[in-house]
Design a protein that fits this description.
Main location: membrane
Family: Belongs to the AB hydrolase superfamily. AB hydrolase 4 family.
CATH superfamily of the largest domain: Alpha/Beta hydrolase fold, catalytic domain
Number of strands: 9
Keywords: Cell membrane, Glycoprotein, Hydrolase, Lipid degradation, Lipid metabolism, Membrane, Serine esterase, Signal-anchor, Transmembrane, Transmembrane helix
Shape: globular
CATH topology of the largest domain: Rossmann fold
Strand content: 5-15%
Subcellular location: Cell membrane
Number of helices: 16
Structural class: alpha/beta
Active site: 212, 347, 378
Strand order of the largest sheet: 1-9-8-7-6-4-5-3-2
CATH architecture of the largest domain: 3-Layer(aba) Sandwich
């Protein structure tokens, strides 16, 4: 055997060990990335609740157990706000139900036709009362979305009638009757639906529910006119951003991939607008021009679409004026019915800086409670053991539990408690 051959045999046993070390390092790196991306080391905890010391809030925290219990997302992926958001947005719910409802058409003064779907209760309400949930979905959403169908089905089984607004232009099979689609804070269609319910069911009381953009609309609607709060028992807003003006800069940042989400939402808005291009750009009464169509094709953000298209439906001179007038932040202080504001700390769409708005409001107003969860993403809030989520989310259950607790409070509160509530509101 030559000296060279001897060297080869001497080195050979070390080579597998080196490759094994590289494999271990690669596996360790992948595991580290998975742990970081899935946020597996993050703890679980009950929601952080901001509220004032009032009899109603004590009753709520005692009776609405989900607000004080630990929220536990699915173990493997539920602590990632991105996956919670993606699963809600793209994959829908597990075994999504198909509640049976009736579509209503409401002619508006400007020639538009608002539509909503009405679902009757499937059981008696716990209090025996007639209660209707008036629901406003998220951006470009409607009653046929998985998360809305799941929530409506659950609410019906708990004794609630449900009325779900279909955002103007969002339903692919419903043609527009005027050159206008829904906007960030226009309350006309939601107000028309509420008016219909009040007239058709004179004995019913209302629970107002808004998801994401819908949360902005319902809070703005209640705060615009005190008459809008008549027969309203309470309001729940989930995952809204409160101020579009303050949010616009955060939507251009890559932090939490917010710029990417902005692009995806802009692309969805493009599809909605272009699906109605004939009416929006072709009618003689349209405020849109060919140049606006060209800008729409090249837009890569919601802000560009809002500036070139959306603000013009209502005649705003600038995007700043549009965001200022259409945001509920300027109307929230006028809402006097019990108001639950829910957000998630890992919501990739709503920047942390915006959460000072509901936090400060809950500190100042006795009727407001702000619940902030550690996890949940944007309208996710899935629950489950390890991998597969449950059909109902924490969000579904907490809205119904809060509403039912308010119904019990209204039914059994004493005159003294009513006077105390009035005194606190005036103070």
């Amino acid at each position: 055997m030559s000296a060279h051959e001897g060297d080869v045999h001497t080195l050979a046993p070390e080579m597998p060990a080196m490759f094994d070390g590289m494999k271990l390092a690669a596996v360790a790196t992948v595991l580290y990335i998975i742990v970081r991306c899935l946020n597996l080391k993050s703890p679980t905890a009950p929601p952080e609740i901001t509220y004032q010391d009032t009899p109603l809030n004590h009753f709520l925290l005692k009776s609405c157990s989900l607000l004080t219990k630990e929220y536990i997302p699915p173990l493997l992926w539920g602590k990632s706000g991105h996956l919670q958001t993606a699963l809600y947005g793209k994959l829908g719910r597990v075994s999504s139900p198909h509640p049976h409802g009736h579509r209503k058409y409401l002619p508006m003064e400007d020639g538009a036709t608002a539509t909503f779907d009405l679902f009757e209760p499937l059981a008696d309400h716990q209090t025996g009362d007639d209660v209707t949930m008036v629901i406003c979905p998220g951006i470009g959403n409607h009653s046929e979305k998985h998360y809305i169908r799941t929530f409506v089905d659950y609410s019906q089984k708990q004794g609630y009638r449900c009325a779900v607004l279909n955002h103007l232009g969002a339903l692919p099979n419903i043609e527009l009757t005027s050159p206008r689609v829904f906007t960030y804070g226009c309350t006309w269609e939601f107000g028309a639906m509420v008016g219909y319910i009040k007239k058709a069911y004179p004995q019913t009381h209302l629970v107002v529910v808004g998801f994401s953009l819908g949360g902005n609309i319902v809070c703005k609607f209640l705060g615009e006119n005190c008459n809008n709060q008549e027969r309203v028992l309470c309001c729940v807003s989930v995952c809204q951003g409160y101020s579009a003006l303050r949010a616009q800069e955060t939507f251009l940042q890559w932090d939490q991939c917010r710029r990417f989400y902005n692009f995806l939402m802009a692309d969805n808005m493009k599809r909605i607008i272009l699906s109605h291009r004939g009416i929006l750009f072709g009618m003689s009464s349209s405020k849109m021009k060919d140049a606006d169509m060209s800008r729409l094709y090249t837009a890569t953000s919601l802000m560009q679409i809002d500036d070139n298209i959306m603000r013009k439906f209502h005649g705003y001179s600038s995007i700043k004026e549009y965001y200022e007038k259409e945001s509920c932040v300027h109307y929230l202080h006028n809402v006097d019915v019990p108001l639950l504001l829910v957000n998630s700390a890992d919501d990739p769409l709503v920047h942390q800086s915006l959460l000072t708005i509901p936090h400060t409001l809950a500190e100042k107003k006795p009727n407001v409670m702000f619940a902030l969860t550690l996890h949940g993403g944007h309208l996710g809030f899935f629950e489950g053991a390890v991998l597969f989520p449950e059909p109902l989310t924490w969000m579904d259950k907490v809205i119904v539990q809060y509403a039912t607790t308010i119904c019990h409070w209204e039914r059994h509160k004493t005159p003294c408690q009513s006077e105390a509530d009035c005194s606190e509101e005036k103070a």
